[in-house]
Write a structure and sequence with these properties.
The chain is α+β, with helices and mostly antiparallel strands. It has a single domain, classed as YggU-like (Conserved Hypothetical Protein Mth637, Chain: A). Helices cover 19% and strands 36% of the residues. It is built from one helix and five strands; from the N terminus they run βββαββ. Strands 2-3-1-5-4 form a five-stranded mixed β-sheet, covered by helices on one side. Strand 2 and strand 3 form a beta hairpin. The longest helix has 14 residues. The protein starts with a strand and ends with a strand. The mean pLDDT is 94.
Length: 72
């Protein structure tokens, strides 16, 4: 399953909300430096979808706020 995600790093709270276009909007406390936000995103998505972190891959957008994530 592939999901389009808009990430908002350095937020005060961590949460996931569905957007109107069918994608997800994710707020993360982590900073967007040295991959911290990407690691936090994978951890939060794994908890949300109840899967292992190893089953989540960022397909595109490693350095962007707009990402495509694949959950296997």
């Amino acid at each position: 399953m592939k999901i389009t995600i808009k990430v908002i790093p350095s937020a005060k709270v961590e949460q996931i909300q569905p957007a109107l276009d069918g994608s997800l909007k994710v707020w993360l406390r982590a900073r967007p430096k040295e991959g911290e936000a990407n690691r936090a995103l994978i951890k939060l998505l794994a908890k949300h979808f109840d899967v292992a972190k190893s089953q989540i891959d960022i397909v595109s957008g490693l350095t962007s706020r707009n990402k495509i994530v694949e959950i296997s």
